[in-house]
Prior knowledge:
This protein has helices spanning 10-27, 76-80, 110-131, 142-150, 176-182; strands at 3-6, 49-55, 61-69, 95-103, 135-140, 156-157, 162-164, 167-175. It is of the alpha+beta class and 193 residues long. Strands 1, 2, 3, 4, 5, 6, 7 and 8 form an eight-stranded mixed beta sheet that branches. The model has no long low-confidence stretch (mean pLDDT 92).
Amino acid sequence: MFSFVAAKDGELLTKVYRFRYAIACEELGVYKKEDLPDGLEKDEYDNYCEHFAILDESGEVAASIRLVHHSPIGYPTQNAFDLNLKKLGLNEDNAGELSRIFIRADCRGMKESREIFRLMKKNIFMHAFNLGVEFTLGSVEKRFYLLLRRFGFPYEIIGNGKVYAKKERFPVLLSTKECIEANKKLFDGLENR
């Protein structure tokens, strides 16, 4: 039903930026349309990340996610919440962040969401593991936090909430190893590497 692909450049990456614009600007109103006149939602962290798309059967973007890693400017959650990773006992060299997790409105049913998150989990954490990314940060609303945990992303809240991108969000942390452990069947053989 869905396929997971890397959006490295060209037409697919432009589709991902347009998709992000449709969700963040048109649907959620997080950003002003006039601030993004080209209809593409991008930020400074996009220079230090890998973009991924989940495509539907017709090849259209049904969902997006990015993995920011080895960023010399820090990470969105780290900077927005003024987190000191060393004080949290974390090594910035092994850090990453999952963000711009967007799902198209007609793909948000339980069946579709479960499959989309399964594909994200399997492909993102396998990739993060191979990159040496030991943990990923995130900034999520309480309801989305509970949904992510339900779908096998064992995030932990690591700080107080604050209004960020127009909603109260909480900084969260996810261990790559814990995610792999919590989803052993999905990562068959990966934990032995």
